[in-house]
Amino acid sequence: MKTDTSMQIPQLQVDNISIGYADRTVVEGISFQLKPGEIACLLGPSGCGKTSVLRAIAGFEPLMQGSITLHGKTVSSSVMSLPPEKRHIGMVFQDFALFPHLTVVKNIGFGLQKLPRKQRQQRVEELLELVELTDAKNQYPHQLSGGQQQRVALARAMAPRPDILLLDEPFSSMDTELREQLAREVRDLLRRDGVTAIMVTHDQHEAFAMADQIGVLGQGKLLQWGNGYDLYHRPSSRFVADFIGQGVLIPGEIIADNKIHTELGIVSGKITSAATSGQQVNLLLRPDDIIHDDNSPLKAEIVGRAFRGAVYLYTLKLQSGQQILCLVQSHHQHDIGEFLGIRLEADHLAVFSDLT
Ligand SMILES: Nc1ncnc2c1ncn2[C@@H]1O[C@H](COP(=O)(O)OP(=O)(O)OP(=O)(O)O)[C@@H](O)[C@H]1O
């Protein structure tokens, strides 16, 4: 009996790649892989090398070291690079790059010239339906909203069924409030068509809404690869802890397995990294780890308050002067200067020694 091995071959394998410009290395030793149908994001601050990695996958940047393999076929190494047009990739750019003189139908069908007319029409119709633009099919890009233009760009890139779709900050020209929603919509569309995709962004909310796996980059290195939950609750470094979500670090001492003594008392939970008894550490406290509890003997002074709609984000000062953050439902209103009863409730204890 024949076994189907296609599921075992990664759709994309990036193996120890380094990229540089004029002798300056900007990406160093990055490795990750995507299974067929998986959606990933490269996330990181400006200049950390995200776009360079995406451009290398597309075939626009040569590798100094390492290799890139698409569905079992090596497309880049330090000695060869298959030209972009031979890689069978799709790209969606920041500005969508739609053809202004072509209708929606013609934009979407642009990469399908080699298909017989009937099949081309069928694929375009299918995509129009998928991105819900059948009614706008004879319109020109300037007659569409930003979100509709983006769906056309997406459908055009998906039309030839690329092995992988690369998205370079596709929501950056949109309002912040819209981005997360669009990211979710795009994710649904990619899922429905089984597309493997990788998106570059510096917006963590977009990455959370879109990706199965997120790679956090800092100064050209891949610092952590995981899902949003892991990055938030089990950050592997201070950089990731700072970059993902909000939080503060408070000093503490490991007193036993999964127990830390801090100014807030003894905190129990799963310590996410190797730590030994007696070790001085800094414990990451997220705003959602601090629970408002009027009955708690532990009180902290409110020194800052930011309205976030459903919740207030309070900045609280402990006796030592150490500040922490706390999320409280916004129908509980408290003023600056008041003392709030709090307790700590954290499942995962992310700790960092001074050197990390
Ligand atoms: N063509 C180039 N020539 C020289 N240096 C470049 C070139 N492209 C990028 N760089 C440099 O490489 C580094 C990484 O750039 P890259 O665009 O990959 O980062 P990024 O994380 O995508 O940043 P952003 O979010 O601002 O787009 C930066 O220091 C950048 O200045």
UniProtKB/TrEMBL annotation:
Q: Which residues form the ABC transporter domain?
A: 12-244
- Family annotation (InterPro entries): AAA+_ATPase, ABC_SmlMolc_Importer, ABC_transporter-like_ATP-bd, ABC_transporter-like_CS, ABC_transpr_FbpC, Mo/tungstate-bd_C_term_dom, P-loop_NTPase, Transp-assoc_OB_typ2
Q: What class of enzyme is it?
A: hydrolase
List the GO molecular function terms: ABC-type ferric iron transporter activity; ATP binding; ATP hydrolysis activity
Is Transport among the key words of this record?
A: yes
Q: Which residues cross the membrane?
A: none
A Pfam family matched in the record? ABC_tran
Keyword terms: ATP-binding, Cell membrane, Hydrolase, Ion transport, Iron, Iron transport, Membrane, Nucleotide-binding, Transport
BP GO annotations: quaternary ammonium group transport
One Gene Ontology cellular component: ATP-binding cassette (ABC) transporter complex
* The protein's Enzyme Commission number: 3.6.3.30
Recorded protein name is Fe(3+) ions import ATP-binding protein FbpC
List the source organism: Methylophaga muralis
